[in-house]
Amino acid sequence: MEIFVALSIVVLLLLLAQNKVNPAILFFGLVLMYYVFNLIEIKSMLNNFTNTSLVTLLLLLIVSIVIEKTTFISTISNKIFSKSYNKSLLKMSFFVSFFSAFLNNTAVVASMISVIQQNKFHAPSKLLLPLSYAAIFGGTITLVGTSTNLIVNGFVIERGLEPLNLFDFIYVGIPIAIFGGMTLLFVARFLPEIKNEAEKREYFIEAKVATTSKMIGKSILENKLRNLEHLFLNEVIRDNYNISPVDPSEILQADDILIFSGDVKQIEILNHFDGLILEHNKHEAKNLVEVIVSHESNLINQRVKESNFRTKFDASIVSIKRGNEKLSTSIGNIVLEMGDNLILAVGKAFYKRDNLKKNFYILGDIGIQKKLSFFQSMLVVVSFLLVLLLSLLNILTLIKGLFMLLAFYLIIGFLNLQEIKRRFPYDLVIIIGSALGIASVMIDSGVANTLANFLNSSFGSFGVYGSFISIYLLTFLLTEIITNNAAAALSFPIAYVTATNLGVDITPFIFAVAYGASASFMTPYGYQTNLMVSSIGGYSFKIFLKSGILVSIVYSLIAIILIPIVFPF
After folding, report:
1. Whole-angstrom Cα distance, residue 409 to residue 114?
2. Which of 132, 429, 549, 565 is most deeply packed, by most CB within 10 A?
3. CA gap 343, 280 in Å, rounded
4. Distance between CA 560 and CA 558 in Å, rounded?
């Protein structure tokens, strides 16, 4: 049995690392297989999907939908930036860390991206990666700061241990946010400086010459396509043949596909040319929405024309951006990748689609949701902080307070059932519920004990502290290979058995897993906010690696030093 479980975990890791199959399918498939082979009972398996920490996480995510509608983040963030880059960077870092300690990291980063792009003082490429890092720092400050902390607390509760408290993380999290923020000043030297990025967003834009167009038979120069102010004609696709660079004397033919790059906001210029068809003509041009393809999207590795995109989302792709990469084909032939930055022309049913949250990170506030008034925003924030305070004072449990808060928001109309249905994180529920079952099987089968003994034999000469560091490093490496939540799920049972075998307090090992799982700085794929800023900032993998190594060293040193001091063995 132990060998079977061990092999299944190895296969799970390999499939997660390849990122070709939805992690929810992999986790649920594995726990279901364990049930079929009688490695876990049906009652235990189903109980994991109603774990207190999982329900708390769901309530937080749903309540955060209302908090995202408040005006405070955008209002305050507009006052962050000044002529001094260092001051702007530090203010942004601490501001984002504070909000990320209590709100969904993805929502905070999405709100800040547009603000950063519009700032008048600094290139967005010098701020976007620090934005993602600061959100990760902030997530380590409280129990509710990141889903990873709540997942770890779910494992704690499942093993019958004392649950973690809301502010147990502040003693390590606040120093990480402070020193991590200062480290960003050094990271800045590795970041590219792309001038005027806020005004000029370089996108890949496609237009087609209609068979009735008056442009047919005339040259590029004669059609006045050569010196457009905001757009540049990169190439012409004719009968699946690419003409690039485009000679000014090139004669246009019917059905030619023209590939432009430039500022997507100026796309309406192309509507002035007779018979030049833009994809968004089938939807109103004023309904342009900017999105990023998420790491969970079903669109990954699919050609646009084969993805049934318009039917799925009631939207069409107007333009696409993939870092600094030059895309050289028609939009229909592009194979979509995670992190692709798309501009969509959307129809009336776009926001009613249930699959938006899974497939995209939606940027900006164009048609996304109506902001609450100042008074309404105050009511939302005060009520949310009151629930946290009552939980801290042990007057009201966090889960009960969140249930009451959710009911309150529904009654006064700040939230509706359609929004909950659209934003409900089904994949996250499946992953966490399944991961709890997998962790139990790892412990009961002896796999966790075997791995713990291996780590102890490798680091045992350094004593308990050496074993503690080994757990942190294991989780740290896993979170860069797979995802933060998956890393926590696979590391916790090993940490649990290691502490039990050593006969020491398990608390520092719990925090080693929590902080190790959040330490995703060196790749754009390990954490969703990294993926969100990757394409927009034009960051290469090399930039992530250079910046992430420095941040990882500072972050890890603080965690490894402080955790055993705050929570002794």
Report:
1. 27
2. 132
3. 10
4. 6
499 or 244, which is more confident: 499
* Residue 487 zone, left/alpha/beta (φ > 0; ψ -120 to 50; rest): alpha
Residue 350, C-beta contacts closer than 8 angstroms, at least 6 positions apart: 287, 289, 313, 314, 315, 344, 356
Which helix (H) or strand (E) segment is 421 a member of? helix 417-423
* Mean pLDDT within 102-124: 79
Would you say the C-alpha torsion 124, 130, 135, 138 has a positive or negative sign? Answer: negative
- Hey, is 319 helix, strand or coil? strand
Taking only the tens place, the pLDDT of each residue in 18-50 is 767 777 888 899 999 999 999 889 988 888 888
Residues 117-139 have a mean pLDDT of 88
Distant-in-sequence, close-in-space partners of 298: CB < 8 Å, separation ≥ 6: 22, 355, 358, 359
Q: Let me know how many helices (H) and strands (E) the chain has, helices first.
A: 22, 9
User: Exposed, middle or buried by CB within 10 Å (0-12, 13-18, 19+), for 310?
Assistant: middle
| Dihedral angle computed from the Cα positions of residues 191, 193, 198 and 203, in that order, rounded to the nearest 10 degrees | -80
8 A C-beta contact, residue 133 and residue 527: no
d(C-alpha 523, C-alpha 520), whole Å = 7
As a whole number of angstroms, the distance between CA 370 and CA 419 comes to 12
Identify the DSSP state of 300: T
Kindly state the tokens that stand for 63: 């309540």
Residues 6+ away with beta carbon under 8 Å from 217: 251, 252
220 Cβ contact partners less than 8 Å away, ≥ 6 residues apart: 226, 233, 246, 247, 248, 249, 250, 252
The SS3 of residue 185 is: helix
